[in-house]
C-alpha cells in the first residue's frame, strides 16, 4: 500500500477482471461495426457551455454532477459527463453532415465523469460505449440502434434485462402536453426544488424516484395520450420493427430520462439483478440538440451503454465470459546458455502470432513450472544445455502432461499446428 489510494468514487481495472471490461467493450462495439458505424474519439473535456446547452441547464448532470475547471488561460472546461453533445459537436465541426451521406453513424468508447454520491454501480469515473446516428428521421434507424444494443447484451449471455420504451413527442405535441402536465403538477404538494423543476422541465418530475412524489402522480396526464398523429405513427413503426426483430419491450409512459434533449423515441435497458442502479444503458432521439448547440436542424438518435454496470450484470447472472487464454506457450530455460536460446525462440514465436511468455528472473525448474501453470499456457517449452546440444527442446502439453522432444527449428510450426488442432479454451 502506498500513501495514495484511488480517488473517492473511482476504482482501478486490474487483471484478471480488466479483461472482462475489454470483452464487454468489444461485445458492445462488434454489432455496431457490422452495421456501418465508424469509430470517433473526442477529447476528455469540452467547453462547459457545450454541456450546459446540450445536456440542459436544469438537469442533474449540469446542476450537480459536472467536474468543471478554469484553465490557466481562463477557459471554462468540464470533464465530459456524457458523449452525445461532444460527438455531435465534433461531427458538426468536421462537417460530416454535409458530405451528403446521411445518416452519419458513429460509435465511441471511453471514460466519463460525474460528481455523484458513490454507491454500487454509481461511480465518479465510469465507462460507456455509445452510438449516434445523425441527420436522419426514420423509425428504422431508431429500431436499428435498439436492436444493436439488445443483440450486444444477448451476445454476452445476459437474459435478465428489460427494455423500457416511450415516446416524448416532438415540437408540435410536446408543448401542449407540457402545459397540461404543468397544470396538474402545480396543484400538488411538492418541495421548493421540485416546484422549480415543474416550471423548468416538468417531464422530469415524472422520473422522481421518491414515494411521496410518485403517490401524487397517479392520474397525471401522460405523453402517450397527447402524441400528435405524426409522432403516434412514428412510434408505432418503431414498435413494429422491434417486434419483428424479436426484441421484447415494455411500454413505460413515465420514462423521460435525465437529459433535456430527447424527442420521440426514448428507451432504457434495465437489469433486474442490480438493485437501485438498475439502468445499464439508455438513449433516444434528439431532433433538437443540433440547433441547441448552434448547428443546423439535424434529427438524430443514439444511445450509451454503461460498461461498469454491464460487468455487474454479468456477475449478477453468474456469467463467466469465455475469454481466450492470454498465453499459449511458456518458455522455461535451464541454465544461462539455454536462457539466450529460448529468449530468441520466445521472440520468434511472438512474431509468428503465438502468445508466449518466459520464466524471467532465473527461477529454478520447480518455480518456473509453477509460473507456467499459473500463466494458463497450453504448452511449456523446457530446454537445458543437453537438449540444445542435440538441437531439440522439450515440449510439454500442460493439459495432458505429455512431453516430447521437438527439433528446435521445427518448434514454431509444431506449436502452431498443435494449437490449431485443439484450440485452447
Ligand atoms: P442513472 O439514472 O442511473 O443516474 P443516467 O440516466 O444518468 O443513469 P445516462 O446518462 O443515460 O445514465 O448514461 C447511460 C448509462 O451510463 C447508464 O445507463 C449507466 O449504465 C451508465 N452510467 C451513468 N452514470 C453512471 C455512473 N455514475 N456510474 C456508473 N455508470 C453510470
Ligand atoms: Mg444519472
From TrEMBL:
Alphabetized Gene3D superfamilies for the sequence: Anticodon-binding domain (3.40.50.800), Bira Bifunctional Protein, Domain 2 (3.30.930.10)
Assigned keywords, A-Z: Aminoacyl-tRNA synthetase, ATP-binding, Cytoplasm, Ligase, Nucleotide-binding, Protein biosynthesis
SUPFAM superfamilies: Class II aaRS ABD-related, Class II aaRS and biotin synthetases
E.C. code: 6.1.1.21
One of the record's GO molecular function terms: histidine-tRNA ligase activity
Subcellular location: Cytoplasm
Xref: Pfam families: HGTP_anticodon, tRNA-synt_His
InterPro entries, A to Z: aa-tRNA-synth_II, aa-tRNA-synth_II/BPL/LPL, Anticodon-bd, Anticodon-bd_dom_sf, His-tRNA-ligase, HisRS-like_core, HisRS/HisZ, HisRS_anticodon
Domain Aminoacyl-transfer RNA synthetases class-II family profile: 1-324
Keyword ATP-binding: yes
Catalytic reaction annotation: tRNA(His) + L-histidine + ATP = L-histidyl-tRNA(His) + AMP + diphosphate + H(+)
Assigned protein family: Belongs to the class-II aminoacyl-tRNA synthetase family.
Oligomeric form and interacting partners: Homodimer.
PANTHER family to which the protein is assigned, alphabetical: HISTIDINE--TRNA LIGASE, MITOCHONDRIAL-RELATED, HISTIDYL-TRNA SYNTHETASE
Protein's UniProt name: Histidine--tRNA ligase
Native organism: Streptomyces silvisoli
Gene name of the record: hisS
Amino acid at each position: 500500500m502506498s500513501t495514495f489510494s484511488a480517488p473517492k468514487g473511482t476504482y482501478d481495472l486490474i487483471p484478471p477482471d480488466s479483461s472482462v471490461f475489454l470483452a464487454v467493450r468489444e461485445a458492445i462495439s462488434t454489432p455496431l461495426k457490422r452495421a456501418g458505424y465508424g469509430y470517433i474519439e473526442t477529447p476528455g473535456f469540452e467547453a462547459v457551455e457545450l454541456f450546459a446547452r446540450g445536456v440542459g441547464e436544469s438537469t442533474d448532470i449540469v446542476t450537480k454532477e459536472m467536474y468543471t475547471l478554469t484553465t490557466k488561460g481562463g477557459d471554462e472546461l468540464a470533464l465530459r459527463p456524457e458523449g452525445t453533445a461532444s460527438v455531435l459537436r465534433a461531427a458538426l465541426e468536421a462537417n460530416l453532415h454535409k458530405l451528403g451521406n446521411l445518416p452519419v453513424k458513429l460509435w465511441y468508447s471511453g471514460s466519463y465523469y460525474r460528481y455523484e454520491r458513490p454507491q454500487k454501480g454509481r461511480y465518479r469515473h465510469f465507462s460507456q460505449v455509445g452510438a449516434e446516428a445523425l441527420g436522419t428521421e426514420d423509425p428504422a434507424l431508431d429500431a436499428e440502434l435498439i436492436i444493436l444494443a439488445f443483440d450486444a447484451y444477448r451476445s454476452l449471455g445476459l437474459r435478465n434485462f428489460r427494455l423500457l420504451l416511450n415516446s416524448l413527442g416532438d415540437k408540435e405535441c410536446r408543448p401542449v402536453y407540457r402545459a397540461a402536465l404543468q397544470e396538474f403538477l402545480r396543484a400538488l404538494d411538492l418541495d421548493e426544488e421540485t416546484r422549480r423543476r415543474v416550471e423548468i422541465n416538468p417531464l422530469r418530475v415524472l422520473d422522481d424516484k421518491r414515494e411521496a412524489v410518485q403517490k401524487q402522480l397517479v392520474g397525471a396526464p401522460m405523453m402517450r395520450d397527447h402524441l400528435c398523429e405524426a409522432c403516434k405513427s412514428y412510434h408505432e413503426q418503431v414498435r413494429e420493427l422491434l417486434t419483428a426483430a424479436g426484441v421484447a419491450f415494455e411500454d413505460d409512459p413515465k420514462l423521460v430520462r435525465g437529459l433535456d434533449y430527447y424527442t420521440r423515441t426514448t428507451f432504457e435497458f434495465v437489469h433486474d439483478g442490480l438493485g437501485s442502479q438498475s439502468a445499464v444503458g439508455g438513449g433516444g432521439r434528439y431532433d433538437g440538440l443540433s440547433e441547441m448547440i448552434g448547428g443546423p436542424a439535424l434529427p438524430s438518435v443514439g444511445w450509451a451503454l454503461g460498461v461498469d454496470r454491464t460487468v455487474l450484470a454479468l456477475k449478477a447472472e453468474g456469467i463467466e465470459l469465455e475469454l481466450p487464454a492470454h498465453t499459449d506457450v511458456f518458455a522455461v530455460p535451464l541454465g544461462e546458455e539455454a536462457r539466450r536460446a529460448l529468449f530468441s525462440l520466445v521472440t520468434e514465436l511472438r512474431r509468428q502470432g503465438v502468445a508466449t511468455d518466459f520464466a524471467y528472473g532465473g527461477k529454478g525448474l520447480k518455480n518456473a513450472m509453477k509460473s507456467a501453470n499459473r500463466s494458463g499456457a497450453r504448452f511449456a517449452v523446457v530446454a537445458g544445455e543437453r537438449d540444445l546440444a542435440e538441437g531439440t527442446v522439450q515440449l510439454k502439453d500442460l493439459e495432458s502432461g505429455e512431453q516430447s522432444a521437438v527439433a528446435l527449428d521445427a518448434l514454431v510450426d509444431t506449436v502452431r499446428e498443435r494449437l490449431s488442432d485443439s484450440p485452447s479454451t
